[in-house]
Amino acid sequence: MTELPPPQPVVEYHSVDRATFDKVRASGQPAVLRQLGADWPAVAAARHSDENLIAYLRRFRVARPVSVLIGPPGIEGRFLYNDDMTALNFARGTSPLDPFFDQLLHDRANPHPHALAVQSEEVPNLLPGFEIENRTDLLGPAVVPRAWMGNRIHVAPHYDLMENIGVVVAGRRRFTLFPPDEMKNLYPGPLELTPAGTPVSLVDPANPDLERFPRFAEAAKRAQAAELAPGDAIYIPFHWWHGVDSLEPVNLFINYWWNDRPSDSGNPYDALLFAMFAIKPLPEDQRAAWRAAFDHYIFGTNGDPAEHIPVNARGILGEATPEQLGRMRATLRQLLQRL
């Protein structure tokens, strides 16, 4: 078996304020923000005991059922696919929070529990008031925190269409990260059927099958990793692949997603899916022509594609103002109605 290099450690920062975080973002690299949430009451409760954490959370819980992921003991906490990839290897259900909390505490002594997780729930709707007592000054109030709770869960490497700060409240979490351009070596799964939205890597970074996924050896050379304890946080830049291992029987993670793209613009992921429909089936010579067109008009490989056109005549090649984006949206609606 080929010996893979260990991941490089994610760079660490301490006592991070807004100015320091601006520099972190400008680096374009992941970063561990040690003890960013050290003063959170929830972190203090978790450090005392799992029972104290759950008692703290019960102060804020809502009465409504929430979405819960549950997987059989045989998957060992790794939410992914069944053997022939025709379905996921876990089920989605609903449960009030109280029995979910009770099950987490009850299963701590079970060496082979069911995999349990509540994922990506907006904190103000799940635990209203929690976000007031436990907050960060690195982001504005418009960025809504989300809660991720469960037992020993292993989330396959995937990317988000957002930037991300996440704070470990309870348990420990291990992150393994890869740059966006390592997609070619990470063997993404299907686009139509995914555990949580964007494609996931089929490679288990902790136990990679290099006979099936030989190019992963190249991705491993650029991997970064970090282990976070309660109070620690991580910054994950846009589109960086990250696998996440929850290492304790009771885990709570609070994350903040945001994206600085214009609010009136379309979703680039939608454009990717439409390109699968409109461009991928074309003959190779036509795809090559469209690749050149995208490089010219979208990615600016040859400079500003409209620099030779008067400003008043640039149309969609000009500045993406709200008015221009609105006209483009109306045109696209008409085009899509023809499909």
| Mean of all residue-level pLDDT scores | 94
The share of residues in extended strands comes to: 15-25%
- State the helical fraction: 25-40%
Q: Tally the helices.
A: 10
Number of strands: 15
Largest sheet entry: 9 strands, mixed
- Which CATH architecture of the largest domain is right? Sandwich
- Enter the CATH topology name of the largest domain: Jelly Rolls
Q: How would you describe what is shown here?
A:
This protein has helices at 18-27, 41-48, 50-58, 97-106, 123-126, 130-133, 216-220, 268-278, 284-297, 322-337, and strands at 8-9, 12-14, 31-34, 66-71, 78-79, 91-95, 115-122, 145-150, 154-158, 163-170, 173-178, 224-228, 233-236, 241-246, 251-258. The chain is an alpha+beta fold and 339 residues long. It folds into two domains: 8-258, Cupin (Jelly Rolls, Sandwich), CATH 2.60.120.650; 268-337, no CATH class. The strands form two sheets. It has a nine-stranded mixed beta sheet. Strands 1-12-11-14-9-5 form a six-stranded mixed beta sheet, with no helix packed on it. Strand 2, helix 1 (18-27) and strand 3 form a beta-alpha-beta unit. Helix 2 runs antiparallel to helix 3 and helix 3 (50-58) packs antiparallel against helix 4 (97-106). The longest helix is centred in the last third of the chain and has 16 residues, at 322-337. The mean pLDDT is 94.
